[in-house]
Amino acid sequence: MSVLVGKKAPKFVAPAVINGEEIVEDFSLDQYIGKKHVLFFFYPKDFTFVCPTELHAFQEKLAEFEKRNVAVVACSTDTEQSHWGWLQLPKKQGGIEGVTYPIVADTAKTISTNYGVLAGEYQYNDEGYLTANGPMIAYRGLFLIDKEGVVRHQIVNDLPLGRNVDEAIRMVDALQYFEEKGEVCPANWKQGEKAMDATFTGVAEYFSEN
C-alpha cells in the first residue's frame, strides 16, 4: 500500500461511463487540473451490497461537492459495460440508477495498482504460470486531489467497510480553508469554526479560546 499524499496523482486514460449513460473511451483526471479539486474514490465491484450504498451516498451529496467546485469520480476494476448495466438498474433492485458522476473502468487493474489500492497481486508459481494472489479488486480507497493534481488526503478501507461521505466533505472544506486562509485546521474542525495560525502565538491563542 503506497502513500500518495504530497505527490502528483498517478495519471491514466481509461474508459468511463459519464452522466449515467454515455461511455467514453478516453477519460482522464487531467481535464480538471487548474479548474477543480477532485474526489477520486475506488470501490470493489459492481452488483454487490455495500458498494451501491456508497455510490448513492456520494450522489446524494453531489450538490455539496459541486458547490465547492469539486469533481467526484468513481472507479472499480469492472468493465465500462458492467458499469453501464449497473447504472440502468433501479436502486430498489440493487442498482445505481441516478448516479451521474463519472465511473471509470480499470479493467487492466493498472489504475488501482498505481494508486496502491489493488487487493492482490500477480505472481508466477513454481511451474512458471502467472497466477493471482488475492481477489484482484480495489479496496475502498479515496483520494482528495487539489487543482495542481497533487494528492492532499487519502484513506483506504478494507472491503467490508463503507465510508463516511460527510467526512469527505469535511476534508474538502479543511483543504480549501487552508488554501484560502493559510490557517491549519485542528481535530474535528468543521466549516465555520475557528482554525489556527500555525505559529507558537497562533496555537497558544487558539487553545486559550478553546
UniProtKB/TrEMBL annotation:
Single Gene Ontology BP annotation: hydrogen peroxide catabolic process
Residue numbers annotated as active site: 51 (cysteine sulfenic acid (-soh) intermediate)
Entry-linked InterPro entries: AhpC/TSA, Peroxiredoxin, Peroxiredoxin_AhpC-typ, Peroxiredoxin_C, Thioredoxin-like_sf, Thioredoxin_domain
Domain Thioredoxin residues, every copy: 3-177
Gene Ontology terms for molecular function: thioredoxin peroxidase activity
One GO CC annotation: cytosol
Location within or outside the cell: Cytoplasm
Keywords, sorted A to Z: Cytoplasm, Disulfide bond, Oxidoreductase, Peroxidase, Redox-active center
Family: Belongs to the peroxiredoxin family. AhpC/Prx1 subfamily.
PANTHER family membership: THIOREDOXIN PEROXIDASE, THIOREDOXIN-DEPENDENT PEROXIDE REDUCTASE, MITOCHONDRIAL
Job of this protein: Thiol-specific peroxidase that catalyzes the reduction of hydrogen peroxide and organic hydroperoxides to water and alcohols, respectively. Plays a role in cell protection against oxidative stress by detoxifying peroxides.
The protein's name in its UniProt record: Thioredoxin peroxidase
